[in-house]
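Protein record

Derive tokens from sequence
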Amino acid sequence: MQLKKVLKTFSIAAMLFAAATPVCGQDLLARQAPVDRKMKALDTIALRHIIEREMAGNPSAQLYSEWSNKYAHQATALPDSFTIDLRHFAMPTDSRVITSNYGRRWGRMHKGIDVKVYIGDTIRSAFDGKVRVVRYEAGGYGNFVVIRHNNGLETIYGHMSKQLVRENQQVRAGDPIGLGGNTGRSTGSHLHFETRLCGVALDPALMFDFRAQDVTADFYTYRNKNKNRRAIVNDIASTAGEEFEPAEVEDVAPVKASTPVAKQSTKKNNRDNARFHKVAKGETLYSIAKRRGTTVDKLRKINHLGKKASIRPGQILRFS
């Protein structure tokens, strides 16, 4: 009889415990819900901070809306101003010999610079970035590589004998990406090197000094002085405002109908025929005028220089 009472008491206690367990579980879930919401909010904030840090460390994400392996370059909307971080760089080649500069050549625009290299010489990535294009172009670049860098620039390396990277591969500054060569439209082994911002070619000499094997400054700031017009000459300037160089824009805005045809033609010819000189150490206006077949007065006039204005090494002067 006593045993029966004990078993009955135990059974009742077990039933009461079983009935109370869901309540306890529900209470636990109820208490946990606000904690989960707080953790979710914290995770969202942390994720946002991570994204913001990545955006700050990768300005190219602010410039380019798409990623494509189909084209070498394509002009897109240019910012009014953009600072290019040139720190943490690597020279694409150890060669110090420039065989052809940026600018008009043989009646057409040469949109990069040619650096003398020999077949098999190592070509390196200029900055950290991601390989966008690895291709062969018989009538142009030959074996070439296009890299989109975290600082917003895209660099093109042409005429190589061999590519050492693949599309969509992450590279660091100084990583080997190819070997020097003489492929494509080339008359001798060399590296054709281009720097582009949103598809628009900029003079590499304003950022890279191959003779000194160094960059020209820690930063360059691109400024679009004609931001209200789609296709006139754009400027790239140093943060100190010392140098200005035109960058060719491939998309030409229509000319207003009210402008006389003869005047349109004159303006276009003046713009297309403009030629520039980068001042070297020890040069004067007189020596530049003599070398370029012009006069000091003309140099002063077209560059808006006063009679007492001085020039400095690295300054870009228009001479025609």
